[in-house]
Amino acid sequence: MKKSVKAIIAAAAASVMCAAPAVTPIANVSTTAITASAATALYDANGNPTASFYSVSERPACYVTNNSGLIYQITANTRNKHEVQFCGVASTQSSVVVDNKININGAVFNVTGIAPDAFRNAPDSNLRNFDLRKAVQITSIAPFTFASSSIESILLHDHFTEIGLSAFFNADRIQTIDIPADVTNICAFAFASCDNLKTVRFVENDDAELTIGDSAFKSCTSLKKIINNRDISEDSETSAFDKCSQNIKVRTEYPFEDYYERYVVSFCDFFGFNTAI
Q: What is the value of pTM for the model shown?
């Protein structure tokens, strides 16, 4: 039995409340907010960026990397667990490469997430391009992280597992997205109302099915092409592409007839598309 939209949203919201601290978006703030003196080295002996204390109202324990001005907030700081989440930049730069580890006062912290809501409702931000390929300890995009944001492109490493509830809702600058091979769940409304999204590619993974949630790509009115190399779970919602064109071109990168039936014909039948070329 398919879950209702309300049930999916309620479950996801409850998960966020239990698992993540409340945050305030700070996509772009002035470099004058840096309160520590400049570091003598941009990197530690192992090549990890060093970071200085960064004062942000209503958000404790923030640090900014001395090499690139990326802001991280401490989420765990015990003897055996040092973790931060990426939550903004301290300049007007347009692109960021998110780190895997940073050094704070001699202790190495693992970058394990992006703050939920961090870039939400910031359509006029200068920050447009996100590269997460180095940040291999981040494995999911939290709910609403990029909703109604200025994001134009995002590069994900191969081992992301989930795209959260409304993670890119109304992010209307995005034109293409590659869904990594290890993603097994695209949550409800993840890319809904991305008006300029033209191409979606599902990277191949023979070992795991992909579940696409209710209205995940709803109202992506510019969507013209889907490159599908994945088996779609029967737990997916047939409403995932509501209010998209029914004449979207669906194809696969596998050149064999059985894969065409598996990845193209079955995909079109499940979601109700008219064409498969």
A: 0.84
How far is residue 189's CA from residue 149's CA, in Å, rounded to a whole number? 15
Domain encompassing residue 51: 21-113
Shared domain check, 261 and 125: yes
The domain spanning residue 16 has which CATH number? 3.80.10
Strand order in the sheet with 249-251: 176-179, 199-202, 225-228, 249-251
Residue with tokens 């409702």: 121
CA distances from 41 to 38, 45, 48, 164, 208 (A): 9, 10, 11, 37, 44
Instruction: Determine contact, residues 95/131, Cβ cutoff 8 Å.
Output: yes
Q: What token pair was written down for 276?
A: 């498969």
Summarised one tens digit per residue, pLDDT across range 47-81 is: 999 999 998 877 789 999 999 999 999 999 999 99
Quick one: 141 exposed, middle or buried, by C-beta within 10 A (0-12, 13-18, 19+)? Answer: buried
Question: Nearest CA to 245 among 224, 266, 226, 228?
Answer: 224
Q: What is the tens place of the pLDDT at every residue in 109-120?
A: 999 999 988 899
Q: Which two tokens stand for residue 168?
A: 């890119």
Query: Do residues 128 and 153 share a domain?
Result: yes
Q: Please, are residues 33 and 62 in contact by the beta-carbon 8 Å criterion?
A: no
